[in-house]
Amino acid sequence: MSLITENGFTVKSDLHTLTKTAIDIRMNHNDFGVNLTSLQPYAIKVPPEEYSRYHSFPKVVQEIMKSLIFASKRTISLTTMDEILLFLRDLAQNNNREWFIANKDRYTHVLKVWNAFCESMICELGKSDKDIARLTLRDCTYRIYRDTRFSNDKTPYKTHFGLFLAPGGKKSMHAGYYFHIGTGGSDGYPHSHMLASGNYCYEPRTVKLLREDISFGWDEFSRDVLSKADSSFHVDMEGALKKVPREYESDAPYADWMRLKSYCLLTNVDDAFITAPDLVHRVAELFLTTKPFIDYINRAVDYRE
After folding, report:
1. What is the separation of C-alpha 286 from the centre of its chain, rounded to a whole number of angstroms?
2. Hey, what's the torsion of the CAs at 96, 99, 101, 106, to 10 degrees?
3. Which of 68, 113, 169, 213 would bridge 80 by S-S if both were Cys, CB 3.0 to 4.6 A apart?
4. What is residue 188's three-state secondary structure?
5. What is the full DSSP assignment across 29-93?
6. Rounded to the nearest 5 degrees, what angle is found at the Cα of 44, between the Cα atoms of 90 and 8?
7. Whether the Cβ atoms of residue 24 and residue 62 lie closer than 8 Å to each other
């Protein structure tokens, strides 16, 4: 029986080994305060399949596991994306200012990991798009702090990291490439991990122009734009009109595209995709299959009569 079996490592769950490992970690990495005298009542054995129920474990076991996972690279080898996922899941369970302040060092660490990933993505996609190559972190990343002034949800922190690479930056109104890491375990925003190409905010004139372009040139749009995107992408219909506008045929092959008010291709990915090696190149390869779509949308965004 093991306490944890993940990514090729195993930690025995007997109290002696657990305590010895925790003491070693605390002596060398004073990152987490664990009251070892309180271990005895919680000397439980946890099968590997129960690892996903991490947050149901007694608090002291959670603290030991965090020490094992985040502090001792000699004991456990995690990918950098594992660290981000575990932090976001912990934050989702403890979304309050007190916990965040107590874990500020962890946040600072995973933020550095995330920023390094984002800079690599700028460089990788910038090889194929000079407008992306010009971007800085400030242009394409987001703060973790939520604006709760007009929301019924008063939790202070986002439980996801997002990167939006668009010509002119995230506030430019251009279509771009959005990569999102959530807590996982759901296909819905903001919990799911996703790649999205496009944007969710367009001026009415841009929407009108796109509807005209797509309806008049459907064959070219479907052949030269949509067919180039990886088959995992689908058009995001969230927020679409219930009916096709009356000026367009409701049974036309492009009818659903006439219902859209935003234009975005979307694919969800799982934890295995996020934590596997070479994430930057794999994400970039998927995004670049949607570059004809991005270029098509931005042509309408930039059009001036």
Report:
1. 15
2. -120
3. 113
4. coil
5. -TTS---GGG-GGG-----GGGGGGGGGS-HHHHHHHHHHHHT-TTT----HHHHHHHHHHHHHH
6. 65
7. no
Contacts of residue 270, Cβ cutoff 8 Å, sequence gap at least 6? 184, 193
H helices, E strands: number in the chain: 13, 7
Strands (DSSP E) found in 101-175: 161-165
The pair of three-digit structure tokens given for residue 244, joined into one six-digit string: 């096709």
Residue 23 is predicted with a pLDDT of 42
Continuous segment of H or E residues that includes residue 265 = strand 263-269
Ramachandran angles phi, psi of 141, nearest 5°:
-115, 170
Both tokens of residue 2? 């093991």
* C-alpha to C-alpha distance for 29 and 9, rounded to whole angstroms: 20
pLDDT at 66 over 90: no
Instruction: Tell whether the model's pLDDT for residue 128 goes beyond 50.
Output: yes
Please say if the pLDDT value at position 58 is more than 60: no
Type of residue found at 47: P
Would the pLDDT of 229 be above 90?
A: yes
From residue 2, alpha-carbon distances to 10, 20, 99 in Å are 6, 16, 28
Rg (the chain; Cα; Å): 23
| Backbone φ and ψ of 178, nearest 5° | -115, 125
Would strands 263-269 and 234-235 be described as parallel, antiparallel, or unpaired? antiparallel
Q: How many residues does the chain have?
A: 305
Instruction: Give the contacts of 133 (CB within 8 A, at least 6 positions apart).
Output: 122, 123, 125, 126, 127
Q: Parallel, antiparallel, or unpaired: how do β-strands 176-181 and 161-165 relate?
A: antiparallel
- Pick the closest to residue 62 from 104, 24, 99 (CA basis): 99
- 211 contacts 248 by C-beta, under 8 angstroms: yes
